[in-house]
Amino acid sequence: MVRVAVAGGTSPTLGRSIVTAILENGRHDVVILSRKVPDRESAPTEAYGAPIAYVDYSSGPSLTAALQGCQIVISVLKILDPQAMIDTHLALLAACVTAKISRFSPSDWSLGPLSHSQVDLLESRNQLWKSCSELAAEHGIYCADFQNGAFMNYFAQGKKFPNDKEGQAEEAYALGGLKDGMMLKYINLPSQKLIIPLTSDGTPSLITMTLLDDIGKFVAAAIDLPPEQWQGHLSMAGDTFTYEHVYSLMQDQGLVLPHETTTIDQCQTLIDDLDKALTHHFSLETLIEKMVAQMIQVHCRGEIGGGQLQPTLNQLCPEVKSTTIAEYLQRVYRSRT
Ligand SMILES: NC(=O)c1ccc[n+]([C@@H]2O[C@H](COP(=O)([O-])OP(=O)(O)OC[C@H]3O[C@@H](n4cnc5c(N)ncnc54)[C@H](OP(=O)(O)O)[C@@H]3O)[C@@H](O)[C@H]2O)c1
User: Fold this and answer.
1) First-to-last CA distance in the chain?
2) Looking at the Swiss-Prot or TrEMBL record, what is one Pfam family this protein matches (predicted)?
C-alpha cells in the first residue's frame, strides 16, 4: 500500500474523481492537500472522502509535514496566474524532495502536449513540465503528467436533471461535478447546439475526450505501475471520435441538431476578434472565450498529441475500460420511462 497526496483534491471534478477511484480500488491510501484558510480550521476532514492536510504552499515545513508517510504526489491544482502555478508546483516538489517522495505529477489534465503552444492560457504548461521534470530528475523522483483531452462531461452541459434522488445520481454521473459553462457556445445538446470541428480538408476532426470518472480510474491504476513507467507524458484516451459521430448518435436518441461546423480559419477570425476586444477592454470572460476558441482550433487541426491523444495509459493499464461516447450519450440522454 502506498499513500498518495492529491494536491487540490478538493476540486469537485478531477480531485473528486481521482480521490474516489483510489479509495474505491482499496489498495492505497489518500490524503488531500488543501490551502489553510481560517474558516476551514474546523472543516470536517472527511468531507471529501479522504483526510485533508491543510497546507501553506509558501511554507516548505508546512508542505513537508503534510507529506510525511506519502510516496506519491499528484497535483490537480489550477492557479490562473502562470508564474504562481509554476512557483507553487516547484515549492511542492521541493517539499517532495525533503519528504522523500518517489513519484510526482504536476497538474496538466489538458489536451495533448502539442496544444500547449497553441493555446495562450496553456502555454505555461510547457514551462511547468520542463521545470518540474528537470528538478525531479535531479533528485531521482519519477515525474509524469497526465493528459485526457477535454472532459466528455461537457456533452451534458446545459441539461436539466429532475430534482429527485434518481435525478441527482444522473447528474453526478453526467456532469461529474463539472459546473463551468466554458464549452456551451460549441456544445449545448439540450439547446440543440453542436459545432462540428473540421480539418483543413473539410472532414470532421478526430477528437479525444475522457469521462471525469474514467480519468480517476486511469490514475488509480497508474499507481500500480512500476515506478520507471511513471515518466513523461502519460496520456489517456477515453474515446476518440468526431462530433459528426455525436450528431448521428443524438439522432439515434431522437434529437436532430442543426448541422453547424467550424474550421481552423473561422476559429482564427474569432480569435483575432477576441484579441481586439481584449486590447480595448480586458475581461476574464473574453480571455476564457479566446482560450476555448484556441482549443477548438486545436480540435480542428486534429493532430495526434494535440486534439487527439495517444492511448498510452490505456495500453499500460488495460484493466481500465473507459466509457465510449456512444455509451455516455445513450446513458445521459435516454428518456426515463
Ligand atoms: N481537460 C479539460 O477539459 C479540463 C477542464 C477544466 C480543467 N482542466 C484542468 O484540470 C486541472 C484542475 O482543474 P479544476 O477545474 O479541477 O480546478 P479547480 O477546481 O478550479 O482547482 C483545483 C484546486 O486548486 C486549488 N487552488 C486553487 N487556487 C489555488 C491557489 N492560488 N494556490 C493553491 N491552490 C489553489 C484548490 O484547492 P484548495 O482550495 O482546496 O486549496 C482547488 O480545489 C487544471 O490543470 C485544469 O487546467 C481540464
Assistant:
1) 44
2) NmrA
52 and 104, same domain (yes or no): yes
Statement to judge: residues 155 and 268 lie in one domain: yes
Instruction: Tell me the residue range of the domain where 181 lies.
Output: 151-208+240-308+323-333
Asked if residue 157 is part of any domain, the answer here is yes
Q: Are 50 and 157 contained in the same domain? A: no
Average pLDDT over residues 70-88: 97
Mean pLDDT of 299-313: 97
C-alpha cell at 193: 447546439
Phi, psi values for residue 140, rounded to 5°: 70, 25
Using CB distances shorter than 6 Å, the residues near ligand 1 are 8, 10-11, 13-15, 34-35, 57, 76-79, 88, 107-110, 148, 150-151
Task: Kindly state the average pLDDT of the residues 175-194.
Answer: 95
Q: Phi then psi for 145, rounded to 5 degrees?
A: -120, 165
Classify residue 74 by its DSSP letter.
Answer: E
Residue 3 CA to ligand 1 center (angstroms) comes to 21
* Ligand 1 pocket, mutate which of 41, 63, 78 (most atoms under 8 A from CB): 78
Lowest mean pLDDT among 3-12, 44-53, 260-269, 298-307: 44-53
Residue 18 to residue 32: CA distance in whole angstroms: 11
pLDDT, mean of residues 131-136 = 98
Residue 48 binned pLDDT confidence (cut-offs 50, 70, 90): confident
Is residue 132 domain-shared with residue 109, that is, in the same domain? yes
Helix (H, G, I), strand (E, B) or coil at 262: strand
Q: Is residue 135 a part of any domain in this protein?
A: yes
